[in-house]
Design a protein that fits this description.
2 helices, 6-stranded antiparallel sheet, about 120 residues, alpha+beta
Length: about 120
């Protein structure tokens, strides 16, 4: 369980930092990112809201996307990232694609190789 918390905390911290950077670049007062008690909320105004949260009992990260809906991600050591078991796609790949489309700019979140961010 300690490994789960280390990996999920590193992922959530990286995600928060990168989303804040992206929103600063966009410069819209309508967009906001917030992180409290293991729940990250990304409000993109009329584009909808993402909710990403840790699920310690399942050792997962859950994502609710205004585009692709709900998904549950498991950490996969072989790829060193969080993957959705139904399609094998990483959480970072999905969010980069959706956010790039919504924001009209290339979004890179850097969520791969998550174990390197664990201290």
């Amino acid at each position: 369980m300690d490994r789960y918390h280390a990996l999920s905390d590193a992922t959530m911290s990286t995600l928060l930092e990168r989303l804040e950077e992206q929103l600063d670049r966009v410069g819209s007062d309508e967009f906001e990112v917030d992180y409290h008690s293991g729940v990250l909320t990304l409000n993109l105004g009329s584009n909808g809201t993402y909710v990403i949260n840790k699920q310690p009992p399942n050792k997962q990260i859950w994502l609710s996307s205004p585009i692709s809906g709900p998904k549950r991600y498991d950490y996969v050591p072989a790829t060193d990232d969080w993957r959705y078991s139904r399609d094998g796609e990483g959480i970072g790949v999905l969010m980069e694609r959706e956010l790039s489309h919504m924001l009209g700019r290339d979004v890179k979140l850097g969520l791969e190789r998550v174990s390197e961010a664990v201290q």
